[in-house]
């Protein structure tokens, strides 16, 4: 293959095969990610046929990690992270220590050294960013209190792995001998210096991003949004996410994932964050698929035949050992069973940091090649089984909730700990309100009427200048495209009574209706349209009211004409209403309802006589 087409071929073949196998997996009632992983195995170096560029695939997968972590940061705030610190920090540290110890014991049974056991255990202790985020997003749990605890837990794990990657080369000479006492004073001084430098770099990076970035980046995006170019806005968000992630690695030694996460946190302080998250979603999904393909490419199926019992032991440690440890730790920290279930299921898999640790361990001579193969096999199998682990913990939680006595003994609730969600930062507890999509001439007139009557409403508008204008008048406004995932959620669509679509884009209106009804099946709806075909479709869908703009214009003028030519207000109104009902059949109603109106008969008769004369 020509060198120039390596990137294109890797992306095209990987995505096409992932789509085909993902669709087959879905039809077999399996998670689509099983198909993505199998696609990676099919194009990997360990199976016959086409072989994609593994290094290139891993770099593309890293972009997926960056975009996903940036998206998570957009849904967080510094307040959120600070609130969950009481469980995320001690919980993650305890879970890493426990899982590392279990992995080291397993390595001892394999006959490996202490250094190999430490690297092996650490690799099994850290969960995959991509898998955790996708699992929480699919269950709509990312913005919940339990979801935020799981993400905070993950951030602490990632920080711990960054420190591990920095310290491991310095510790390798000590660990290779198998005893800590063998390290010379110089070696320990090097370790202490490496630790201090790493912590200093991380602190400087976080300080710069949170202090300088919080002032500069939101202002920059606000300027771009005022320009009115959606493409330029999307490009600016992408540039910020990738740029800060790259600087984090290149200058400060922080991981891509953490750099992107803090970039997202900076932008989360702006009201533009919702539209930024919506714009990044398609890219996140595409590159997340490439991540799963890259995992599959690393997997050698022959290891299942060479070391079946070792693979089974590793998978048991990841799924059961880590889950049980996390479940016990969360309960010990005074959190409810539901939180313990979410965190435990989220962590019952391994991923990208595990591969990096394994590769570094092999390079330093600490971990045998078989250890790396077992880690990759454990990652692929645990990722495949993770949806079933979630289902198992759901059933366990439901079973425990039906036994209040046992539940009370397990739980030690900390009633003073309340985890803030992103909803609490946006519209608070607003309920039974109207959500107005678009605030042009039509939407603004409706908003003004609701405002006069002091009825609660939220406007969703993608014109930045109009958003700022409406906010100066005290209106609740969400900046963003209502067709994008998450924007209606921010507007509280699940708690709203009425959805008013005041824009005239048919395809967009259908998307908004579908998203609104999924979140709130009982919501009432009124939609503006300019197409009779679309009007018929909307009425078949059973919406509250579909308004065809041209028809309403004609009916309004018709009513005025009838009144001007002698009909009463009531008769004109009745005829207009009849015309609205008959219009779909292409007919004009006969004025039977008004033939008996005595006050009109003389005028009509006199008009007729004048005409005859």
Molecular structure report:
By secondary structure, the chain is mainly alpha-helical. Helix 8 crosses helix 10. It contains 26 helices and six strands. Helix content is 70%, strand content 4%. The model is unreliable at 413-426 and 593-613 (pLDDT under 50). It folds into four domains: 1-52, no CATH class; 53-299 and 321-410, Up-down Bundle (Na+/H+ antiporter like fold), CATH 1.20.1530.20; 429-543, Rossmann fold (3-Layer(aba) Sandwich); 551-612, no CATH class. It has helices at residues 6-27, 32-43, 54-74, 78-109, 114-125, 129-138, 145-177, 185-226, 230-252, 256-268, 273-298, 303-306, 308-332, 337-346, 352-363, 369-401, 404-410, 422-426, 441-452, 464-472, 487-490, 506-519, 532-540, 549-564, 569-582, 601-612; strands at 434-437, 457-461, 477-479, 498-501, 524-529, 545-548.
Report a brief summary of the structure.
The chain is mostly helical and 613 residues long.
Number of domains: 4
- Residues in helix, %: over 70%
In total, the number of strands is: 6
CATH C-level label of the largest domain: Mainly Alpha
Tell me the span between the first and last alpha carbons: 94 Å
Task: Give the helices and strands, then pairings.
Blueprint: H1 6-27, H2 32-43, H3 54-74, H4 78-109, H5 114-125, H6 129-138, H7 145-177, H8 185-226, H9 230-252, H10 256-268, H11 273-298, H12 303-306, H13 308-332, H14 337-346, H15 352-363, H16 369-401, H17 404-410, H18 422-426, E1 434-437, H19 441-452, E2 457-461, H20 464-472, E3 477-479, H21 487-490, E4 498-501, H22 506-519, E5 524-529, H23 532-540, E6 545-548, H24 549-564, H25 569-582, H26 601-612
Parallel strand pairs: 1-2, 1-4, 2-3, 4-5, 5-6
Helix pairs in contact: 1-2, 1-11, 2-11, 3-9, 3-10, 3-11, 4-5, 4-7, 4-13, 5-7, 5-15, 5-16, 6-7, 7-8, 7-14, 7-15, 8-9, 8-10, 9-10, 13-14, 13-16, 14-16, 15-16, 24-25
């Amino acid at each position: 293959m020509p060198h120039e087409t390596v990137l294109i071929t890797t992306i095209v073949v990987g995505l096409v095969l992932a789509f085909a196998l993902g669709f087959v997996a879905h039809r077999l009632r399996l998670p689509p990610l099983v198909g993505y992983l199998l696609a990676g195995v099919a194009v990997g170096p360990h199976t016959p046929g086409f072989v994609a560029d593994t290094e290139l695939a891993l770099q593309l997968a890293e972009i997926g990690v960056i975009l996903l972590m940036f998206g998570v940061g957009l849904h967080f705030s510094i307040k959120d992270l600070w609130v969950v610190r009481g469980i995320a920090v001690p919980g993650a540290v305890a879970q890493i220590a426990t899982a590392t110890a279990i992995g080291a014991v397993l390595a001892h049974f394999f006959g490996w050294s202490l250094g190999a056991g430490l690297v092996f255990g650490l690799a099994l202790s850290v969960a995959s960013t991509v898998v955790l985020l996708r699992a929480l997003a699919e269950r709509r749990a990312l913005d919940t209190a339990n979801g935020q605890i799981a993400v905070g837990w993950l951030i602490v794990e990632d920080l711990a792995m960054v420190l591990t990657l920095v310290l491991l080369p310095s510790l390798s000479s000590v660990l290779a001998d198998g005893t800590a006492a063998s390290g010379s004073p110089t070696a320990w001084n090097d370790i202490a210096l490496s630790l201090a430098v790493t912590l200093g770099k991380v602190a400087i990076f976080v300080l710069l991003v949170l202090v300088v970035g919080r002032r500069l980046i939101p202002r920059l995006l606000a300027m771009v949004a005022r320009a009115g170019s959606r493409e330029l806005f999307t490009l600016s968000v992408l540039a910020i996410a990738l740029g800060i992630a790259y600087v984090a690695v290149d200058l400060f030694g922080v991981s891509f994932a953490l750099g992107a996460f803090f970039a997202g946190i900076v932008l989360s302080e702006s009201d533009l964050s919702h539209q930024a998250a919506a714009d990044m979603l398609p890219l996140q999904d595409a590159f997340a698929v490439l991540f799963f393909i890259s995992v599959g490419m690393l997997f050698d199926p022959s290891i299942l035949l060479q070391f079946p019992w070792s693979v089974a032991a590793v998978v048991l440690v990841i799924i059961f050992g880590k889950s049980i440890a996390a479940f016990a730790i969360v309960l010990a920290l005074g959190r409810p069973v539901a939180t313990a279930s979410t965190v435990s299921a989220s962590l019952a898999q391994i991923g990208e940091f595990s591969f990096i640790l394994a590769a570094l361990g092999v390079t330093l001579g600490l971990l045998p090649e078989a250890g790396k193969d077992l880690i990759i096999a454990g990652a692929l199998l645990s990722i495949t089984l993770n949806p079933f682990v979630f289902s198992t913990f759901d059933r366990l939680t439901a079973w425990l909730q039906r036994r209040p006595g046992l539940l009370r003994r397990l739980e030690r609730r900390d009633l003073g700990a309340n985890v803030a969600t992103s909803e609490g930062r946006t519209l608070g507890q607003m309920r039974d309100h109207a959500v107005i999509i678009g605030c042009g001439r039509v939407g603004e007139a409706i908003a003004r009427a609701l405002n006069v009557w002091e009825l609660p409403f939220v406007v969703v508008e993608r014109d930045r200048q109009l958003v700022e204008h409406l906010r100066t008048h005290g209106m609740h406004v969400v900046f963003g495209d209502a067709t994008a995932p998450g924007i209606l959620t921010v507007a509280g669509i699940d708690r709203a009574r009425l959805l008013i679509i005041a824009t005239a884009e048919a395809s967009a209106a259908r998307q908004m209706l579908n998203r609104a009804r999924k979140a709130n099946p009982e919501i009432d709806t009124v939609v503006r349209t300019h197409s009779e075909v679309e009007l018929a479709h909307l009425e078949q869908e059973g919406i509250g009211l579909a308004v065809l703009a041209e028809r309403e214009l004609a009916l309004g003028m018709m009513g005025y004409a009838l009144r001007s030519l002698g009909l009463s207000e009531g008769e004109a109104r009745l005829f207009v209403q009849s015309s609205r009902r008959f219009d779909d059949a292409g007919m004009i109603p006969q004025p039977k309802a008004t033939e008996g109106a005595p006050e009109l008969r003389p005028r009509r008769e006199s008009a007729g006589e004048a005409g005859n004369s």
